[in-house]
Amino acid sequence: MNTDNIEFFDELLLASKTAYQRAYAPYSQFHVGAAALTAKGNIVSGCNVENASYGLTTCAERNCISHAVVQGEPVLTLIMIYTEQDRLTPPCGACRQVIAEFFSQSAQVVAVNHKNEQQVWTVAQLLPDAFTPQYLLAK
Ligand code: THU
Hints:
5 helices, alpha+beta, five-stranded mixed beta sheet
């Protein structure tokens, strides 16, 4: 994590772990917790929520971002994804698109697991040449 955000690491980890524990994943048993830092320095979180109609499942990252919007803090600077998998979990394609809507291209996406292994990407690395709101505004 970069030096601007490192002071929030412990708080983001706690929030993403708590969200992880609340995941509703009775079908996949694959729990995911996410926590994001808002531009105002607050933290919002989300977990995956599955459904008996499987396709209606929403990922932790998108629930986290929706939570930020509901809180009135849609400008986000970093998102952490916590799982208890041996391999770190990157965001799925749908989440990458939603992340690109609310974070800058240089914002960090940080995957962490229970062994405290970490991997950091920028939004641009995860979704190069993203279709963002500017394309709708520019003629
Ligand atoms: N999942 C997430 O919450 N985030 C991701 O980026 C990858 C997948 C969830 C969706 C589903 O509940 C479970 O993980 C298995 O795909």
